[in-house]
Structure formats: structure tokens, C-alpha cells
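Q: Could you write out the predicted structure for this multi-component system? I'm mainly interested in how the pieces pack against one another.
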Amino acid sequence: MSEVKNLVEVKDLKEYFPVKGGFGKSLTLKAVDGVSFDIKPGETLGLVGESGCGKTTVGRTLLHLYKPTSGEFRFNGELVTEKNMPELRKEMQMVFQDPYSSLNPRMTVEDIIGEPLDVHHLYTTKADRREKILSLMETVGLNAEHATRYAHEFSGGQRQRIGIARALAVDPKFIVCDEPVSALDVSIQAQVINMFEELQEKLGVAYLFIAHDLLVVHHISNRIAVMYLGKIVEIADADELYDHPMHPYSESLLSAVPIPDPKIAKSKQRIILQGEIPSPLHMPSGCAFRTRCPYATERCAQECPSLEDRGNGHKVACFNR
Amino acid sequence: MSEKILEVKNLHTSFFTDSGEVKAVNGVSFNLEAGKILGIVGESGSGKSVTAYSIMQILAGSGKVIDGEILYKGENILNYNAAQMRGFRGKCCSIIFQDPMTSLNPTFTIGNQLMEAILLHTDRNKEQAFDRAKEMLELVGVNEPEKRLKQYPHELSGGMRQRVMIAMALASEPDILIADEPTTALDVTIQAQILELMQDLQKKLGMAIILVTHDLGVIAGMCDEIIVMYGGRVCERGNAEDIFYHPAHEYTKGLLRSIPNASNMKEKLIPIGGTPINLLNMPAGCAFCTRCDEALKICLEEKPQEELVGEGHYASCWMNVKKQLSAAGEV
């Protein structure tokens, strides 16, 4: 396993946002607070967590849609900086959550998918451009006759296909998928999930798959990272995490997932967490989860546990497990 | 058999828009028994919410119930006048909505809004109403209820606000609680809290719940009876085990195949083809026929009737008729 070079290496990534606190005070919102992970070529890393945990910010910061506060991001061994980012966007792309607002309503499908080709000068003649666009549309299951239509003429699932075709236009090795199916109807989700899986088999592209639906993430991911208030608290193989979650937060998160099977759902013991996520502006000292954790001790309030390998790449940040 | 508290018979609700009549609910029938949890599941545009709004008579301006009956304890509420309807809402039947952020008035305190519901529907005075409001907040698990009563909605988190909504809905002790996607806007761990709370309260207070949602997982864990809707029509209704283990409509079957669950993690999902239905352009036959792999000629041409396929389990699918006919032919 160790011979395969990592495609994506993130070390201690931080993203802080200044927030006006009233009375002229300025507060710091630590959206992402020291996140490290790596992704191998052709692999899918799922990133899960509740709203406000910073999972979307991780994806956006990687692609420099936000300027990272600190930390190191290596792509294919090369350090990613502000300077080489425009060039590297040919290698990494993003698919957004909302297929309604992420497509320009004034552009035709052909122009939306063609824009990355224009930006990166990836064609020689007009005919070449058209051919590339049509083949991309075929890849994602859109008809050639759709090329001259506008985004509003499509349903949610089809729009998400347009967004995916746009991301694939530059032939990337890595795609950040930010909640790509959560805006879609249940019966359409499976179409898009299957497409992601098929594209990966065909093109060998790696995904950072950000979502809050844990069953979907489990289905698509090789490994899964669980985030809580800006930090990764556990990272492991998808099945390992589901069968043997170690961090108390992952444990309760997984037990809270509604399983579409009445017998399992009605017999399942849910671990109901008390309280709610603290504000990221006023983080608890030590381990951020301690305020809701049933196992918290004094040590949890004083020190912050770091992510430790408990064997087979199953990493957990908890003193009590 | 326990008492039928609500009977919906052949309900038709349409919206009259500039581009034509949208038949949002198109012949829906079901019964709700006292003290049971009934789930209505469907995609967006299936008519599940409009069914709920029709019961409460809170349809948007262009919407109208054009046919059918809604019997509450044997009385047709569609014949109620405005005053009777106001009495029905809140006292007999309450509703909570998907978005707890927008369903509370931001300019009034929690206490003010809770007490309004209590003063309106019960004959308590202000002081008693205040005590009742505090009691309700305690019941739904809001900590420091006295302090919360003086706070405004923006000071509360999403989960807290949904608890307040539930407290408000239950303050006048209705027989029926309609929950329209009550946890869709909430995080998984908060969703688990709210669902557990609803189950607890249901046991404690004994009201019936109509749970409207698109999430089959939520339905599976909560409901006794389930109605599956598509394109404004009921595809199938039955108890939870019938629907999940012996689905009898092609849409239900497809839906269950297409979602990831505990047992198909290593397999490819089998999606339902096609795109969601356009209610302005409905097929003559079964609403689902354009996306159904099994569709026959008759499915395109003629609406399937509801057939009994098991005890208390009904489905509207030509496949069942075909099965029965071929079974009869073989005999």
C-alpha cells in the first residue's frame, strides 16, 4: 500500500475568518483548525460532519477559493501555493452542492462546459472544442441536442450532470465534491452517485466527497474522515468506521443515522447526544467535543487530543478510547 | 381495530396557475387511527405536503380542494366555515413545518408566541397560560424554560426552535399532529433528538401523528402505517413491514433499490431512470409509467385502480392485476 504515492497531502490546514463581534471587537472564527489527511490516486475520501463543522471550508480552502490561513497542501508531491494554483486548477476541480446557483443562467450548456477549455486553452479549433464538449456531455449522460439550451431548462439531476461535465472538462485527477447529491430527489440521487462511481472507474479520478448523508458517503467512499468543530476526530476505512467507530462522536453520529429498514431501525439503540454544537466562536477548551461527550474527564478540558493511529490506518483523536 | 380519527376520501387539490391547472393531489384516500403514526413519503412534487395542507385548509391562494371528503370523527371539515376551521386548527389538529427558522415570528418572544396559542385555544387566563407555556417547554426538553420564554427566536438554535414549534403545536392538546418534514433542516444528531421526542410525546399524550417526509430512513423508524405518493396519487399504502419488505408498486420497489442501506454497500445502486414528473403534463395512465421499467401498454393508457394485495396493504399498479390474471389463467 505504501508504494502508491499520495495524490493529495494536507498537513495542519487552518482557515480562520475574522468576525465582527460588536463594540468594535474582532473575533476569530476557526472554521478549520489543523486538519491533516491524504488521498491516493483514484481513491474517494468521504468527509462527514454536521453543519458548521468546517467540512465545506476544507474543500474550498484546498482549491484556494478561500486563502488558507496556514498549513501545507501538496498535490502530486508539489507544494500548492497561490502562484501555481491557476495552473493546478487543471488538475483539481470542484462540483458544488446547489445545481441551481452554480451554473450561470445566461450561458448555454455548451458555454458552461466549454469555459474551462477556453481558460486553459485546451483546444486547437472551434470544431475541436465542440467535439470535446459533446464527448463530455455523452460521458455524463446528456444528449447532444441539449448543448444549446440554458441551465434553467433542466431538472436538478441534469444540472448536476452539467456541473460534473464542467469539472471533467480539464481532465482533472482530483475533484472536490461538496454535497453533490443533497439537493436532489431521492430517486435521482442514485443516478448521480452511480455516475460518480463509474467516472472514477473509467478515469481514475480521486474524490474528496463532502456530505452529511452518512449512508451515501459510506456507499461511495473508500475511507471516511469525521469532522467536529474544525478538526478531524476520526479517520478510517469506510467499513471499519461503520463497524467499529472509536470516537464517541462518530459513534453517536452513526447511531443517529436513520436506516431505511423498519426492523433494524426499530431495534437500534440510538446514542442520543445531549445539547448542541457549541458556537465555533466560543470553542470549549481542550477537546471541542467534551461538552457533549458522555465519557469526558478532566484531562479533556485541559488538553486537546491529537489524531493517533490505532492500527491499520484507523486514526482517532480521543484520550478515552 | 381502533377508532378512525381521520378519514380522507378521494381528495383532489389543484392549484390554478397561469400555465394551467396543477393537480397536486389527485384522488388520495387514507385513514388515520387514533394514537398511530402515519408516514406520507414521496419526492418533491408528489403532493405529500399539499395533502397535509389540505387537511389544515392552509393552502396558498391559488390552491383549492376541488373534490373529496376529509372526515374528522365523522364530520366533513370541508363543510366547516372559517370560525369552525379556526377551532379545528390547533385544538383538533396542529401542524409543524420543515423550517423552524421561518415559522416563528422574529419580532415576538417565545413566551408571547406560545401563550398566544394557549390563550386562543384554551380558557386559561394569562397567568395560567404562562405556567402552561413553561410546562410545555419542559415537556419538549427545553432547558431553563423561564429564561427561554423571554428570548426571541434568533437566540435559539434550530433544534431548540423545532422543540418550541412542537410545544406550541401540542399546547392545546390536539388529537392529531401533522409534522411536515420536521427534521429535514436539522443535523443528524439533532434529528435523532427530535424524532425521539416526538415518539416519547406520542406515547405520553396519545395523539396521532401524520409524518410527512422524503426520508425513507425516518419513516422506517417512526411509522406504523405508510403511504407512498407519486405525482399526486397514492401508489401504495400499508404497514411499515409490508412497504419495506413486500413492496407491491414498481415505484416503491425502485425507490427502495435506489437508496443505500445497510445491505447494499458493496453493490451498485439501481437508480430509477428518467426525470421527476411534470404535474402540468401528466400521462393518461399511471403517473409513474414514463419511468417504470415494467410499464405495459395499459399502464400508459389507463389509470390503475387501488387493489388489495395483502391484509391492509393496497397498491395501485397494473403489475398486481397482471399477476392475479396470470395466476388465475394457470389454475
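A: Regarding packing and overall arrangement: The longest strand of chain A covers residues 8-22.
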